[in-house]
Amino acid sequence: MDSLCGSKFWDSNLTVYTDNPDLTSCFQNSLLAWVPCIYLWAALPCYLLYLRHHHHGYIILSHLSRVKTALSVSLWCVSWLDLFYSFHSLIHGGAPAPIFFVTPLVVGITMVLATLLIQYERLRGVQSSGVLIIFWFLCVVCAIVPFRSKILSAMAEGTIADPFRFSTFYIYFALVLSALILSCFREKPPLFSLKNDPNRCPEASAGFLSRLTFWWFTSLAILGYRRPLKDQDLWSLNEEDCSRQVVQQLLEAWQKQERQTAGRAKAAEALGKKVSAEDEVLLGSQPRARKPSFLWALGITFASSFLTGSFFKLIQDLLSFVNPQLLSMLIRFIPNPEAPSWWGFLLAGLMFVSSMTQTLVLNLCYQCVFVAALRIRTGIIGVIYKKALLITNSVKRESTVGEIVNLMSVDAQRFMDVFPFLFLLWSAPLQVSLAIYFLWQILGPSVLAGVALMVLLIPLNSAVAMKMRAYQVQQMKFKDSRIKLMSEILAGIKVLKLYAWEPSFLEQVESIRQSELRVLRKGTYLQAISTFIWLCTPFLVTLITLGVYVCVDQNNVLDAEKAFVSVSLFDILKGPLNTLPILITGMTQAKVSLQRIQRFLSQDELNPQCVERKTISPGSAITIHNGTFTWAQDLPPTLHSLDIQVLKGALVAVVGPVGCGKSSLVSALLGEMEKLEGTVSVKGSVAYVPQQAWIQNCTLQENVLFGRAMNPKRYQQALEGCALLADLEMLPGGDQTEIGEKGINLSGGQRQRVSLARAVYSEADIFLLDDPLSAVDTHVAKHIFDHVIGPEGMLAGKTRVLVTHGISFLSQTDFIIVLANGQVSEMGPYSALLEHNGSFANFLRNYSPDEDQEPHKDHRMALEVEDEEVLLIEDTLSTHTDLTDTEPPLYEVQEQFMRQLSSMSSDGEGQVRLRRHLSVSEKAAQVKAMEAGVLVQEEKVETGRVKLSVFWDYAKAVGLCTTLAICLLYAAQSAAAIGASVWLSDWANEAAMGSRQNNTSLRLGVYATLGILQGILVMVAAFTMAVGAVQAARLLHHKLLQNKIRSPQSFYDTTPSGRILNCFSKDIYVIDEVLAPTILSLFNVFHNTFSILVVIMASTPLFTVVIVPLAVLYIFVQRFYVATSRQLKRLESASRSPIFSHFSETVTGTSVIRAYGRTEDFRVLSDIKVDTNQKSCYSYIISNRWLSMRVEFVGNCMVFFAAMFAVIGRSSLSPGLVGLSVSYALQDAAQDSAFLPRLSGTQSVVPGLAILLSSGRLLGMKTFRSHLRPTGSKAAS
C-alpha cells in the first residue's frame, strides 16, 4: 500500500499517540475512499435479485428523481476530473502516485452504478432505497476525516498545497451530503400498484429511515394515547400477510407433501408386490409407511422469513461481543494517566454506536420473525378450517368441535409463540462458543470448569423438558375433554335447564378440571425448578470459573478488567442460557401440538368424485346403480344395493319406518356418505333442506339469500310460499332481525321454514328435502306443500326428493320410494303401491291417525278452512313448537299451551310459566336490542387503564399472604444481587491498590453465598407463585363455570357459543399458563432494573445529572406505548371470538355449505375474520418494536453517559467502580427494553382475567331456583 500511495499508509504517532489525532493522506485517499464503493458492489448482487422478485409498479420521473440523478452524474464528473487531472500532471512532467489514478477510477465507476440504480429502482417502484442511503451515508462519514484534515493542514502550512484537488474534494463532499439528504425523501407512490385502500398500512410507502426506526407507527401511538383505539383505526394488513396468500402457500406446501408421500407409498407397494414370500421372511417386514410432514410444509413456506431473521440475528450476536472488548479498553484507560482523554471519549462513543447498531439490527430481526410467527398462525388456522369442511363423518365422530377449536386456538398459538425463539438453535451455540473463546483469552483454562458445569446441566435440563412434555400431553388431553364437554353442554343448554341437569354436568366438568389442575400443578413445580436452574447456571458458571482461576495459582489476581469483562461476557452467556429453557419448553409444547395438527390434517376427506355430476342417463336428474353406502369404513353398510332413477322435474317421496335410511339416502346423494360400490349421478345444482335446520347467526334476510344477490320479487315469493310473512310482522326488526346462534330465537317450525325459503330462493335444479314438514303444524305443512313443494307450487317443474312421514301428500307425488332396512323394498306411483299391498301399505297403516283422534282432526281441519291466517300467526308466535312435535297431545291442551307460549314470545321472554327477574339495566338493554332487531351484541371492548380492582381480585384469588411473600422474596433477591456486585467490585479493587489477595476463600465464599441465595429466593418465589396460580386458576374457572351455567336462557340466545368457548379455552389458558409467568417476569425485570440504577448512581454520582431527563423521556414513551398496546391487545382479544364462533357454526352446517357449493365463500369469510384479528396482532407486534427502539435508545444513552462520566471523573474513580458502573449500564439497556413490554403484557393478558371476574359480578351466585321460580309461587305460599 505504501508503494501505491508513495507515502506511509499508517503512522501510530500521527493517529494514536497524540492529543490531536489524524490519519495519513495515503489512508484517506485509499481505504477511506474505497469503503463506500466496496459496500455498494458487495450489496449489488443480492439487491438486484431482490428487485427482480419485488416489482411494485412504475414511478414517474419526478423532480426529486431528476435531481438525485443529476447529483450522481455530477459526482461521476468530479471523479473523472480528478482522474484527468492526474493524467494532465503525468503528461506535463509530474509524477502522481498510482493511488490518484486508481481511486478516481473506482469512485467514478461506482457513481455510474449509483446513477443506474436510481433509475432501475424507479422502474421497479422503490420509493426509498435503503441500499443507496447507506452508501451515501458511508460516503459522507468517510469524507469527514479528509474534510477536517485538509482544513487543519492548510491552517498549519498557511497555504493550500494542491488547490485543484482541494476544490474538487469539497465539491465532492457537498454533492454526497446533498445526495444523502435527498435520498432520505421518498418518491411518489408507483403507478399500477396495489388497489387503492383508504386504510392502507403506511409501512409499505414509508421511507427507509422511517421503517428502520418504526417512525411510521408513531401516528397510531399518538392516536392511541389521545383516545382508545377502535377497530376502524387499525391499518389493513400487507398483501403478503393476508390470509388469502399465506393459507394458499401453506396449503400448496402441505398438498405437495401429501402427493410425495402418496407417490412413495405407491412405489413401495409396487416394489412389495415383486418380493416373494421367501424374500419377505428373509428381509423382514416392510418398513412402515412414511406420513406427510406438516413441519416440513411449514419450513418450506416460512423458511425465507426465518433465514432473513437469522441473518440479522447473526450480525447482532457478533456485535454483542464488541462492548465487552471496549469495556476492557476503558478499564485499562482509567488508571493510565498518560493516555490522551480523546481515547476515553472515543471508547464511550463507540460503545453508543455499537449499542445502537445492535438495537437497530435486533429490532429488524424481531420484526421479521414475529410477523412470520403471525403468518404461521394465520396459515395453520386457515388450513385447519379448510380441512374441517372436507373431513368425513367418521372423522367428525373422533374430532369434536371443541377439539378442533383447541387446534385453532391453543395449538396454533403455540407455534406462534415458539417460532421467534427457533434461531436459538444455532445462535445459542454460537454465542456460547464466542463467549468461551473470549473468556479463555482472559482467564485461560479456568473457563473449562464453567463449560464442564454447563455440559453436566444438559442432562438435567433434558430430563425436566421430557417430564414437562409428558405433563403437557396429559394436560392437553384433559383440556380437550373439558372443551368437548363444554361444547356439548352449550349445544344442549336448553334441555339441561328444562330438566334441571346443571348440577350433574357441573360435577363432570369440575372433575375433569381437577384432573387438569393436578397435572398443571406438577408442571408449574417443574417450571419453578427450571427457573432455579436457568437463574443459577450463569452465576454458578461465573463463580466456578473465577474460583478456579484464583485458587489454581496464587499469582492469578482478579483485577477489575478480568472481573467485569468476565461478568459482561457471562452476562452475554446468560442470554442464551436463560432463553434455552423457554425454547425447550416451547418446542416440547409445539411438538405435541404438531402431532395433534398433523393427525387431524391426515384424516380422511370426502371423495368429491363419489357423485358423478356430468354424465347421466337422458331425461334423468338422479340415478343410483347398485349403490352401497356406509357412514364409516369400520361400520356396516347403512344402504345396500340401491337402484334408483329419478326423472327430471319429478316429485319423488321417500318413505319408510324410523331408522330405515331415508336421511342416509339424501346424504348419499350429497356425497356425505362413503360409497363402497356402485355409481351415483346427480345432474344440476342442488338445494338441500336438512331434517335439523341449520341457521346462521345473521339476519333472517341473509339466511334466506345465503350469499346470493337480492332479487326482491323472488325473495318475496319465497317468504310468502314458506309462510314467513306473518313471522316478519311479529319479529322486532322484520327480515333484518338478527337470528341467534343455531336459530335459538326461532321456533323449530320457523327454523325449518327459513331453511326451506333458502332452498326456494336458490333456484336450484334439484331439491333434496329431508322431512321439512315434520317441524311445522299440519295446517302450515299443507300451506307449504300447496304453495312450494306440490304440483302447483313454486317448485313445480323442478326435481324434488321429499323425505316425509306425512301420508296426506303422497297421493300428489309422481313417484314413491319405500325403504326398509337400508334397501328399496318397493317403488312406484301411489296407486300402484296401494294395489301391491306391501311395505307401503304397512307404512300407511302405521302412520295413519287413530280413530279416536279423528274428531280432533276434523275439528282442526275445519278451523284451518275458516281461518288459516290465524293459525299461521299462532304457529309464528309459538317459540317452542319443537317441544310439542314429538307427542300428539289433545288439541285443547295443545291450544292452551300454545297460547301461553305465544304470550311468552310477545313479551320477548317467558313470563307466564318461567319468570326471570331482570334488573332495570338488563331490561333497558333488551328493549333497545329488540327495537334495533339485533339479537347478538358485539363483544364489548374495554377501554382505558386496567382497573386496580382486577389486580386486587387476582391477588385475592392467589392469596394475599402468597402475593406479599412473592414481593418480599424478590426484594430480598435484589438486595442479594446488589450485595454480590458491590462485593465483587471491592474484591477487584484490591489488585488496583497493589495488595495481595490473601483472603481469597472469604471473598469467594461470600460471593458464592450471595449468588446462590439469589437463586434460592427466586425458586421459592416461583414455587409460591405456582401454588397461588393453581389456586387462582381453580377458583376463577369455578366462578366462570358457575356463572355461565347459571346464566338465564336469554344469555345463550344472545351470546355465540364460540365466544363462550373462547372463555373456557383461550382465556382459561391465559390464566393457567401465561399470567403467572408474565407477572413473575415483570417482578424480575422491575427489581433488576431498580438494582442496576442504584448501583450505577452509587458508583458514578455524576450520573444522577442525566437520570432525570432520561427518566422523563422513558416515562413519556411509556405513556404512549402502554395506552396503545393495551388497547391493541383488547381489540385482538375481542376479534378472536368471532373466528371460533364462525368455525363452530361452519362445522355444524358443513353438509348444507357443501350442498349449496359455498365452501369457498365460507373460507373467504373465515379469512376475513382472521385478518381482522391479525390486524390488531400485527399492530401490537410493531408497537413492541417501536417501543424497543426508543427505550433501548434511552438505555444506550445510559451506557454512553456512564462511560463518559467515568472518563471525566477518572482521577477520582477506581477501575472497580468504573467496571461495575459501565457493566451494569450495559445490562440496564436490555432491562429497560424488557420492562415496558412485560408491564403492558401483564395488562394485555389481564382483560381476559377481567372478563372472568366481571362475569362473576354480573349475575352473582344466584341459585337455580331464582331463575325458575313460578309466578304464582309467592301467592301460593
TrEMBL record:
Keywords: ATP-binding, Cell membrane, Membrane, Nucleotide-binding, Repeat, Translocase, Transmembrane, Transmembrane helix, Transport. The chain crosses the membrane at residues 31-50, 70-91, 97-118, 130-149, 169-185, 294-315, 342-366, 418-440, 446-464, 525-552, 957-984, 1004-1030, 1092-1117, 1193-1213, 1241-1260. PROSITE patterns: ABC_TM1F, ABC_TRANSPORTER_1, ABC_TRANSPORTER_2. It catalyses: 17beta-estradiol 17-O-(beta-D-glucuronate)(in) + ATP + H2O = 17beta-estradiol 17-O-(beta-D-glucuronate)(out) + ADP + phosphate + H(+); leukotriene C4(in) + ATP + H2O = leukotriene C4(out) + ADP + phosphate + H(+); an S-substituted glutathione(in) + ATP + H2O = an S-substituted glutathione(out) + ADP + phosphate + H(+). InterPro entries: AAA+_ATPase (IPR003593), ABC1_TM_dom (IPR011527), ABC1_TM_sf (IPR036640), ABC_transporter-like_ATP-bd (IPR003439), ABC_transporter-like_CS (IPR017871), ABC_transporter_C-like (IPR050173), MRP (IPR005292), P-loop_NTPase (IPR027417). Residues 307-589, 964-1227 form the ABC transmembrane type-1 domain. Pfam families: ABC_membrane, ABC_tran, TMD0_ABC. It is a multi-pass membrane protein. Its EC number is 7.6.2.3. Its main location: membrane. The keyword Transmembrane applies. GO terms for molecular function: ABC-type glutathione S-conjugate transporter activity; ATP binding; ATP hydrolysis activity. SMART domains: AAA (SM00382). It is found in: Cell membrane. CDD domains: ABC_6TM_MRP1_2_3_6_D1_like, ABC_6TM_MRP1_2_3_6_D2_like, ABCC_MRP_domain1. Residues 622-846 form the ABC transporter domain. Belongs to the ABC transporter superfamily. ABCC family. Conjugate transporter (TC 3.A.1.208) subfamily. This is ABC-type glutathione-S-conjugate transporter. It comes from Heterocephalus glaber (Naked mole rat).
